[in-house]
Structure formats: structure tokens, C-alpha cells
Design goal:
Number of domains: 1
Shape: globular
Helix content: over 70%
Number of helices: 4
Strand content: under 5%
Number of strands: 0
Order of helices and strands: HHHH
Low-confidence stretches: none
Length: about 70
């Protein structure tokens, strides 16, 4: 069963993705990669400072986009 912190983190990640459709495009094209990115983002948001959610997700997106050059 998902606890409140997990639900909140999942909601914040989903909201951020909707608000930033141009981000992590390389992951969005590959369902498995996108799911892995979302799970990592949810974990990072859940474990991080709640006031830094935007920064956390921007950093993760930038890392994912940078690794697209390796694909």
C-alpha cells in the first residue's frame, strides 16, 4: 500500500511532467526508460526537501537529457 509521502511525491512528479512537456523527451519515447525516470524522480522527491521539488526534478531532467547524447 502506498503511503501519503509516496502519493504526494508521485502527484508532484506527474504535475511537473504535465507542466514541462518538453523535458525528458528522450525518456518519453521509450516507455521503460520513462518509467524508470519517473520512479527515480518519485524517490528523489520523497527523500528530498519538499521546498526543493522543482530543483530536484529539473536536475534529474537535465541529467536524463544529457545522457541522451550517449544513446
Amino acid at each position: 500500500m502506498e503511503n501519503q509521502a509516496e502519493k504526494r511525491a508521485r502527484m508532484l512528479v506527474e504535475q511537473w511532467l504535465v507542466a514541462h512537456p518538453e523535458r525528458v523527451g528522450n525518456r518519453r519515447r521509450k516507455p521503460e526508460d520513462f518509467l524508470n525516470w519517473k520512479l527515480a524522480a518519485i524517490r528523489s522527491v520523497r527523500e528530498g526537501n519538499p521546498y526543493d521539488v522543482g530543483d530536484i526534478l529539473r536536475r534529474l531532467a537535465t541529467q536524463a537529457e544529457g545522457s541522451a547524447m550517449e544513446d
